[in-house]
């Protein structure tokens, strides 16, 4: 084989190889319709692969580190907006009227002082004996419930005008629900077990005594 023939062979091989490479690149760039018809778009046209508007973490892992950070920022913003919406929905319905009503009732029945049998002034939080509790009910609680009225039918005015703090109407008969801490809610030292068989800690809902108390007769 002569040198011109060998040169022509390598030239044809190179052209075929370049044509194969061009076809591969062309298939990755040109639209499918242009590949099927064999007609290239007009000169100056190029196909642009658009990034989706919304990127999830699984999509970002295929695109690169920059998109992973972008997806993380999107998730943080969405979570922050969710927390704000939850806070507004939870704290929004509360009104100032309910706040002042609760504060007024607490000041009237809990924070206001009353006299015990010994003549001492204490509040509801300072009660430590049954005698102080009954003095609270008789001398403070009942007068606060029936504001400005007595039990004497001759002195009682229209029942529809009965109210608390001259603003809140009484609906029905007031009832008291008793709650009690368990007798084992606090620990007693071994040295004092011979004197104290039970101990009552400060009342909490998780330490409430839920056993039956008294004769067990219904009150309503």
UniProtKB/TrEMBL annotation:
- Transmembrane parts of this sequence: 67-91
Where is this protein found? Membrane
Q: Name one GO molecular function term.
A: calcium channel activity
Look up the record and report any one GO term of the cellular component aspect.
Answer: membrane
Tell me the leader sequence span: none
Positions of the Polycystin domain: 124-214
**Per the UniProt entry, what are the Gene Ontology biological process annotations, in alphabetical order?**
detection of mechanical stimulus
Which InterPro entries does UniProt cross-reference here?
Polycystin, Polycystin_dom
Which keywords appear in this protein's UniProt record, sorted alphabetically? Answer: Membrane, Transmembrane, Transmembrane helix
What superkingdom does the record give? Eukaryota
Its membrane topology is listed as: Multi-pass membrane protein
- Which family is this protein grouped under? Belongs to the polycystin family.
Under which name does UniProt file this protein?
A: Polycystin domain-containing protein
Q: Which organism is this entry from?
A: Acanthoscelides obtectus (Bean weevil)
Q: What is the lineage of its organism?
A: Eukaryota, Metazoa, Ecdysozoa, Arthropoda, Hexapoda
């Amino acid at each position: 084989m002569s040198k011109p023939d060998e040169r022509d062979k390598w030239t044809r091989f190179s052209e075929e190889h370049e044509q194969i490479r061009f076809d591969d690149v062309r298939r990755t760039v040109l639209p499918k319709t242009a590949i099927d018809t064999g007609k290239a778009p007009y000169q100056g046209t190029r196909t642009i692969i658009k990034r989706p508007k919304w990127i999830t973490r699984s999509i970002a892992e295929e695109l690169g580190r920059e998109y992973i950070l972008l997806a993380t920022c999107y998730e943080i913003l969405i979570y922050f907006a969710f927390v704000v919406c939850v806070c507004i929905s939870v704290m929004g319905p509360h009104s100032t009227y309910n706040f002042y009503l609760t504060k007024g009732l607490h000041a009237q029945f809990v924070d206001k002082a009353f006299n015990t049998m010994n003549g001492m002034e204490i509040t509801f939080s300072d009660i430590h004996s049954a005698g102080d509790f009954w003095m609270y009910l008789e001398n403070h609680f009942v007068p606060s419930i029936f504001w400005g009225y007595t039990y004497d039918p001759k002195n009682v005015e229209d029942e529809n005008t009965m109210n608390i703090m001259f603003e809140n109407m009484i609906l029905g008969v007031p009832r008291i629900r008793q709650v009690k801490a368990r007798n084992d809610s606090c620990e007693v030292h071994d040295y004092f077990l011979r004197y104290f068989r039970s101990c009552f800690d400060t009342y909490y809902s998780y330490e409430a005594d839920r056993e039956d108390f008294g004769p067990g007769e219904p009150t309503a």
